[in-house]
Specification:
About 20% of the residues lie in helices and about 40% in strands. It contains 6 helices and 14 strands.
Length: about 280
């Protein structure tokens, strides 16, 4: 499936700001599930873009605007070809959780079993995970049970949270958006020492086209497997992966600082078109 994606972010400041330093994570990866055919990033006011790969191998573009400006516009245009994904059978039982210790040492997965900026591994979270898995020992089956649990425990409510909402708040109020579903599932997995990471990207459906977030869990003997707790399913060719991190903080589409007023308006628009 070929997908064309346009992603626009526009900031309007109440007064001119200056010394703006920004990082942009909008370029998708190319892997066995998808091939990036083209990518173009434009910024206004005009800037000199530089790029690098971060600690988790995500593409990062960065720029600075020292002079005063009252607007900032960031637009990415890309074409990506997604490929059919065989997935993992729901009945499969590849490995017991007792093998996770050796996997954590061998595969450098330490970051993905710890608490992070928006993810909690407190005893209360562990209790929820234990109750949800009901004594299951297989890593894959545990991950599936946790995904099903999150979909039932948390209700989807558009605009009910914001990007800085911690998973603790989500567990209290039991509602949120895709980012919150991902954070809750990640926290539950990590309390059981199942490595879990946050994935940012896009989801193209007939009803809507939008940025999306889901999770990947590490299953020894298989590797990273993508699960979407918002929709309670494995991912398919309608998903486009941009990057991964411990949580949203590591892969925010736009992150930056500036000097000046805190009063601003932000508009985000995403348009995805299928090309076959």
């Amino acid at each position: 499936m070929k997908l064309d994606v346009v992603h626009r972010t526009h900031y309007a400041y109440a007064a001119p700001v200056r010394e703006s330093f920004n990082e942009v994570r909008l370029r998708p990866v190319s892997n066995e599930d998808q091939t990036l055919d083209s990518f173009l990033l434009k910024v206004l006011p005009p800037v000199r873009l530089q790029d690098y790969r971060d600690f988790y191998s995500n593409y990062v573009h960065h720029f600075d605007i020292p002079e005063p400006h009252d607007t900032l516009a960031i637009e990415s245009r890309l074409r990506v070809t997604t490929h059919p994904r065989p997935g993992v059978s729901d009945e499969m039982r590849p490995v017991s959780r007792v093998h996770l210790k050796s996997a954590l040492k061998a595969d450098g997965l330490y970051d993905f079993v710890q608490a992070s900026h928006y993810v909690d591994i407190a005893p209360e979270t562990w209790r929820l995970a234990v109750d949800a898995t009901q004594g299951e020992d297989d890593v894959w089956q545990c991950a599936l049970r946790l995904m099903h649990f999150v979909r039932e425990y948390v209700s989807y409510q558009s605009q009910s949270t914001q990007v800085h909402t911690h998973m603790r708040e989500v567990l209290v109020h039991r509602h949120g958006v895709c980012q919150d579903f991902a954070h809750v599932m990640i926290g539950l997995c990590r309390t059981l020492q199942i490595p879990a990471r946050y994935v940012s990207g896009y989801l193209a459906t007939e009803k809507a086209s939008a940025t999306h977030a889901w999770t990947e869990v590490f299953v020894p003997g298989i590797g990273w497997v993508a699960l979407d707790p918002t929709h309670d399913r494995q991912t398919d060719e309608t998903y486009v992966k941009i990057g991964v991190g411990r949580d949203y903080f590591d892969v925010a589409p736009v992150k930056g600082t500036y000097r000046g007023t805190t009063e601003r308006e932000m508009e985000v628009e995403v348009r995805i078109e299928r090309r076959g």
